Amino acid sequence: MKYNKYIDHTLLRADATQSEIIKLCKEAKQYDFMSVCINPDYVSLCKTQLRTSDVKVCTVIGFPLGSNTTNTKVFETKDAIKNGANEIDMVVNISWLKEKKLTNVINEIKVIKKACGKHTLKVIVETSLLSQQDKINACKCVLSAKADFIKTSTGFSTGGATIADITLFKKQVGNKVLIKASGGVKTFDDMVAMINAGANRIGTSRGVSLMQGK
């Protein structure tokens, strides 16, 4: 199994420097990761750094709180794609989920998916802030809106991916939506456990150490 191709090699710290982003891209090329996941201001730089590889550029939208207006998220999405992004990881409006304003959630995902066109859309639902029913509703929204992935976490809230959440997601979405486990995947064994539970992608800042610990 090509575990390297499960990894979105991630650097989303607010103080990430250009030299750190270039290093991230070099590592992604060396290990042939699926993508680098970076903040939108570094999309163009990463596209240039990765031009001789098949490593994708993934960026985040409405990050990390999800509370931007839908129009702002759509603008961010279109701008990121124009700058070279291949994949978009958007943060859902958590308040809408918790207040069961599910039509709002679905409609927002739909318009962002439309803005993505042929590009991959992952929907971050921030599981650590959700009840069990909220998580089930999140799955239903992602299915209804026809996004490509449901993603556990931003990595900037109170917790990250758990096996229980991946198992729940898999039960709800089956093979209709892919699953990204993000936050808290610290070891190679953690990664394998997430994949065995149903994860199709792993978001981690520890991609190199995961592969070295194989």
Map the helices and strands:
Layout: E1 7-11, H1 18-31, E2 35-38, H2 43-49, E3 56-61, H3 70-82, E4 87-91, H4 94-98, H5 102-116, E5 120-124, H6 132-145, E6 149-151, H7 163-173, E7 178-182, H8 188-197, E8 201-204, H9 207-212
Parallel strand pairs: 1-2, 1-8, 2-3, 3-4, 4-5, 5-6, 6-7, 7-8
> What fraction of residues sit in β-strands?
15-25%
Question: What is the alpha-carbon Rg in Å?
Answer: 16 Å
Distance between the termini: 12 Å
| N-to-C series of helices and strands | EHEHEHEHHEHEHEHEH
The counted number of beta strands is 8
List the strand order in the largest sheet.
Answer: 1-2-3-4-5-6-7-8
Strand count, sense and barrel status of the largest sheet are: 8 strands, parallel, barrel
**Low-pLDDT stretches:** none
Basic shape: globular
Give an overview in words.
The chain is an alpha/beta fold and 214 residues long. The chain has helices spanning 18-31, 43-49, 70-82, 94-98, 102-116, 132-145, 163-173, 188-197, 207-212, and strands spanning 7-11, 35-38, 56-61, 87-91, 120-124, 149-151, 178-182, 201-204. α3 (70-82) packs parallel to α5 (102-116) and α5 (102-116) crosses α6. The longest helix is centred in the middle third of the chain and has 15 residues, at 102-116. It starts with 6 loop residues before the first strand and ends with a helix.
